[in-house]
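Support reply, case 0932

Customer input (verbatim):
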Amino acid sequence: MVRYSTEYMNIRAWVRAFLLSRIARALAVGVVAVTVQTIIFEIIGIIFQLVSPSTAVVIGAEAGILTNFYLNNRFSFHDRQHDISLLSRLLRFHLVVSVSVLFEWLLLFIVERQTDSILLIQATYVAGIIIGFAWNYTCYLLFVWKSRE
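Our regenerated output:
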């Protein structure tokens, strides 16, 4: 019989607790929403160049926002009791996420006017997503799915 060290068991318990945590669920939902946004961004802004990358990020973001809200409401924050309607939470969600979308748009708008480098435009897109996640998650907890206390 294999005996696990106490240290291994502590790490395993920590990993399990993290995977079951709200932030891990929100991160998983965020990955799905970013995937939706990125597919749209890449197809209409980079591959087919139907619109500028900064416009494509806004169009993709709207699809990501709706995906993100639905999945967070059903999965990440389903246990929160709410005093406000679903529509009100959706409007709050849009308000919160619009700040990060505006930031992403501004970064891309500046970069696409300075360079034609697709790699730099895509790197800027990724940087905006990372910064946006930190902003969004904090505001989800404090504003959108705030607990009644």
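We compared this against your earlier run and they match. Two observations from our side: The CA atoms of residues 39 and 88 lie 28 Å apart. The chain has five helices and no strands. Please reopen the case if you see a mismatch on your end.
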